[in-house]
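Help needed: design a sequence for this.
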């Protein structure tokens, strides 16, 4: 149960250099599930009007990566990011993502706030002029140490980073290192799952943090520094502040948004290091609280490898939507493995799971129960009254969600589906009804089935919202329903 009235969840803001892919969808669907879950809990509270969940997502629109892609497509960068931001919004609408704001870093209010922060930190001597020399990976938009590279290449992008040497403004880092370590250790800034907390602590305890370059002289596509217009802000500095400007923050450090600190910041493991060093240090410099929880998830792989066009193992998000529908896609992604670990998917396995869990499991259960209601003139309202179906949020699910064990929450619901299917097969209500002397038995069986199916529909709401609605409607109207059509493996 959240102990705050304002509950704030963020996804990363996605680079607007190309169309959204399955990895982006994975993070965003998970964030949407959490937001829906907490909204639901709040709705059940007496003082519900005072509680609010805020889900932020958006696009990261500055920097070399974007500028180069735009140049390659002979577009100006603004045109490119405008198109891509629309692609993201369209996809989130299709996937049923209920975000409260979609922040874009080219938004003038965001830019102004970033400039204000730069000026504040500069005036305090926390940003100073220096020179930076080192390797830079444009794919990551990050400086790389030799020890980060594998055979001289960036392990995430497989490319050789560029050597860079230029005048640059630097952000002081190490003076906040001890405070940061303390906050991570005592979970004031909780990094989870545990293995990622360990990884970051061992990094922070081994190395003194170097001051980082927060400006670029040669990258025009960015926010210019108010105290030196020949420089633009480093894209990550700009991007991190979107977590605050997305709440309408204007860059004034005295004016802390009511939703801050974030309760859950969801990120993939590739962007953990920056989120656990640069971001909290900017916040500490500003005197802001750190996010309560940084939740790190793994990557989606296919056949053990990163999806790539060259390997031919890419599964597209549109392809998944076509085959499995929105709720099928949401289910298959979230149940494909332990949330927090890498997950490995192939189309064959997805189809198999779809058929087993959705078509045969849930679909079959619901259509059988609705058919029984139809054939025997049973009124849902009658059972609703007798069983008092106003269900409270389920404790088990709450516990899983608090630990972000989204996959476990789903398996818990599917245990009910399986047991209920088994119960129908064992009790054979269609036979009971034929025997007048067993009317009571029949009623008992139906009561249990209706309660099961209704509970399932309630529990499913954050995960499969459309399906949840369809089930409730079918129970009430007794209209036949086909939830998930079996798919042939092609
Ligand atoms: N723009 C930065 C984030 C700035 S946040 C202040 C960025 N963008 S990204 O578009 O490259 O990636 C965004 C998120 O997508 C990351 O959390 C990343 O882990 C996630 N994914 C990208 N590919 C992925 C998979 N194949 N699988 C799962 N998630 C992955 O980084």
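Sure. Designed sequence:
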């Amino acid at each position: 149960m959240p102990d705050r009235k304002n509950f704030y969840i963020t996804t990363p803001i996605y680079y607007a250099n190309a169309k959204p892919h399955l990895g982006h969808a994975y993070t965003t669907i998970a964030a949407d599930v959490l937001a829906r879950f907490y909204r639901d809990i709040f709705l059940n509270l007496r003082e519900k009007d005072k509680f609010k969940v805020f889900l932020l997502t958006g696009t990261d629109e500055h920097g070399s990566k974007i500028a180069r892609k735009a140049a390659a497509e002979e577009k100006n960068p603004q045109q490119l990011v405008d198109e891509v931001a629309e692609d993201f919004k369209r996809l989130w609408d299709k996937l049923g993502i209920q975000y409260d704001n979609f922040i874009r870093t080219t938004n003038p209010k965001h830019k102004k706030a970033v400039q204000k922060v730069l000026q504040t930190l500069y005036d305090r001597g926390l940003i100073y002029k220096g020179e930076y020399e080192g390797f830079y990976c444009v794919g990551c938009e990050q400086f790389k140490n030799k020890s980060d590279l594998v055979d001289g290449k960036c392990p995430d992008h497989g490319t050789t980073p560029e050597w860079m040497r230029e005048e640059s403004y630097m952000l002081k880092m190490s003076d906040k290192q001890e405070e940061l370590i303390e906050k991570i250790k005592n979970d004031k800034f909780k990094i989870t799952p545990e293995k990622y907390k360990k990884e970051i602590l061992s990094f922070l305890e081994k190395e003194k943090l170097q001051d980082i370059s927060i400006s670029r002289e040669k990258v025009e596509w960015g926010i210019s520094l108010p105290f030196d217009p020949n420089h633009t802000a480093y894209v990550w500095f700009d991007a991190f502040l979107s977590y605050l400007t997305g709440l309408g923050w204007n860059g004034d450090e005295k004016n802390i948004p009511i939703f801050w600190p974030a309760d859950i910041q969801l990120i993939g493991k590739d962007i953990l290091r920056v989120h656990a060093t640069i971001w909290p240090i900017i916040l500490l410099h500003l005197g802001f609280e750190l996010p309560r929880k940084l939740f790190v998830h793994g990557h989606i792989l296919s056949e053990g490898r990163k999806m790539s066009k060259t390997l031919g193992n890419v599964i597209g998000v549109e392809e998944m939507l076509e085959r499995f529908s929105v709720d099928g896609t949401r289910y298959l992604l979230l149940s494909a493995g332990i949330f927090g670990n890498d997950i490995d998917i192939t189309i064959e396995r997805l189809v198999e799971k779809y058929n087993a869990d959705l078509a045969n499991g849930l679909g079959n259960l619901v259509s059988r129960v609705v058919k029984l209601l139809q054939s025997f003139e049973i009124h849902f309202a009658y059972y609703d009254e007798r069983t008092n179906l106003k269900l409270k949020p389920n404790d088990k699910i709450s516990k899983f969600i608090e630990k972000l064990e989204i996959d476990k929450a789903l398996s818990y619901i599917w245990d009910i589906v399986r047991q209920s299917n088994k119960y129908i097969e064992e009790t054979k209500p269609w036979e009971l009804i034929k025997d007048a002397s067993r009317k009571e038995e029949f009623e008992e069986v139906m009561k249990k089935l209706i309660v099961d199916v209704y509970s399932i529909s309630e529990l499913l709401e954050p995960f499969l919202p459309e399906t949840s609605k369809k089930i409730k409607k079918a129970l009430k109207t007794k209209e036949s329903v086909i939830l998930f059509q079996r798919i042939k493996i092609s």
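The mean pLDDT is 92.
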